[in-house]
Design a protein that fits this description.
Elements: E1 5-6, H1 8-19, E2 25-30, H2 33-36, E3 39-40, E4 47-48, H3 53-62, H4 66-79, H5 84-97, H6 108-126, H7 136-145, E5 154-157, H8 163-170, E6 175-176, E7 179-180, E8 185-187, H9 189-192, E9 202-206, E10 213-215, E11 221-223, H10 240-243, H11 248-260, E12 264-269, H12 276-288, E13 293-297, H13 306-314, E14 318-321, E15 325-328, E16 331-335, H14 345-349, E17 353-354, E18 357-358, H15 363-375, H16 379-385
Parallel strand pairs: 1-16, 2-5, 2-12, 5-9, 6-9, 12-13, 13-14
Antiparallel strand pairs: 3-4, 7-8, 8-11, 10-11, 14-15, 15-16, 17-18
């Protein structure tokens, strides 16, 4: 039996049609890899705009001294990993339960102060602004604005930063994130389940919270400029119990409802599928609703994307596109290009394929591809030279 292969041109033909189609219900899940892909600085000093979890953890560690650093290192060692979300979760747990007992050099009050210091450093690191020139977030907004849609595009993100908000505001694009008000905008869960706003309003759902969320004195979640006293509302390491509390319960329910909607498509970018809770939710919904689909654009090779590949091999409606191959309809195989689909297809191919590798796992490349699709620069050559199934040219 010949070895299975996947032809990237075949699947990108379908993808081009989907992302330029006004009737498809489309969502995007943006993970931590998205801001990492944006490079700033010059020459050898170029770095990611915002680091990944490992880099963020190291930055927090570098900003601690004395007993704070001692406790941080001890918790990190106990956890067996350098993950700031997990470490912060344990810091807050100690703050809540140990009282005057001293653990790793700190009592409950000490852990409360450590939590504030950690949050302050996180806010400083992820509170960066987008580059003034072209950037993938602006490209993504341009794509969304470029097509008159029947359904609003829904953006789900695990990131705490405000990059997407900044890109939409630069483009004067209206959006809704579940909050109402101005000075101290309040979270309104009842509005999340409705679709009363016009389709041109982007829906932005921040599954892990945001640096500009905080708790009001009565415990409600509010959105404003944020605070630096450690009360910013983003879960330390998302757990089932945390997702049952407002606002996370409503946001996760929105993700579930989107995936259970017939003929919906969720595109993931910069998301490794290592987040067990979100991955389980996607897995569960794809099993329940075979008419929904997920296309996961992964940055690495198949062998390195084991979390996404594992789900893709179980769920035929989750396609995993990696650098060297893909999992499509549950079949894991390498990429192999075929004949050009039309006389101008080479122009389209170079947008996602170079040096024998599939490049849309890079958020910068994906956003640029989508922006050109929305403008017609990718889709028009395809439609002009290829007969599609519905008979249009």
């Amino acid at each position: 039996m010949p070895e299975s292969v996947h032809n990237p041109d075949q699947y990108m033909y379908d993808f081009c049609h989907i992302v330029t189609h006004s009737r498809k219900r489309i969502g995007i899940l943006i993970g931590a890899g998205a801001p990492v892909s944006i490079k700033v600085g010059t020459g050898d000093g170029r770095t990611s705009l915002i680091p990944d979890i490992k880099g963020l953890t190291q930055t927090v560690k570098d900003g601690l001294v004395g007993n704070n650093l001692k406790a941080f290192n001890a918790i990190s060692e106990d956890a067996g990993c350098e993950n700031i979300e997990l470490i912060l979760s344990k810091v807050r747990a100690f703050e809540e339960v140990i009282g005057s007992t001293v653990i790793h050099g700190l009592d409950s009050v000490g852990y409360g102060e450590l939590s504030k210091v950690i949050c302050k450093i996180i806010r400083e690191v992820v509170g960066k602004s987008l580059p003034e020139n072209e950037n993938p977030y602006s490209h993504l907004v341009a794509w969304i604005n470029g097509i008159q849609r029947e359904h609003a595009v829904e953006v789900f993100t695990t990131n705490y930063d405000l990059l997407f908000e900044e890109a939409m505001e630069r483009a004067r694009t209206p959006y809704f994130d579940g909050f109402s008000g101005s000075k101290s905008a309040f979270f309104d869960p009842s509005t999340i389940s409705s679709n009363d706003l016009p389709p041109r309003w982007i829906r932005l759902w921040k599954l892990h919270g945001s640096i500009n969320w905080s708790r009001s004195p009565n415990g409600d979640v509010i959105r404003g400029e944020g605070v630096e006293d450690g009360s910013m509302v983003y879960p330390s390491h998302i757990k089932y119990a945390q997702t049952q509390a407002a606002p996370f319960s409503s946001l996760f329910e929105r993700l579930k409802n989107f995936l259970l909607t017939p003929d919906s498509l969720l595109i993931t970018a910069g998301f490794s599928f290592a987040d067990a809770h979100i991955t389980a939710k996607i897995d569960e919904c794809l099993s329940e609703n075979p008419s929904s689909a997920v296309i996961a654009m992964q940055f690495n090779q198949l062998s390195d994307e084991f979390y996404a590949v594992d789900v893709g091999q179980r769920r035929p409606n989750l396609s995993v596109y990696c650098l060297d191959g893909a999992v499509i309809n549950g079949v894991k195989a390498k990429w192999k290009t075929g004949d050009l689909l039309g006389k101008n297809w080479s122009v389209i191919r170079q947008e996602y394929w170079s040096d024998g590798k599939f490049r849309l796992g890079d958020f910068v490349t994906l956003a640029h591809f989508l922006a050109k699709s929305g403008s017609g620069k990718v889709a028009d050559p395809l439609i002009d030279n290829t007969t599609v199934e519905d008979g249009s040219k």
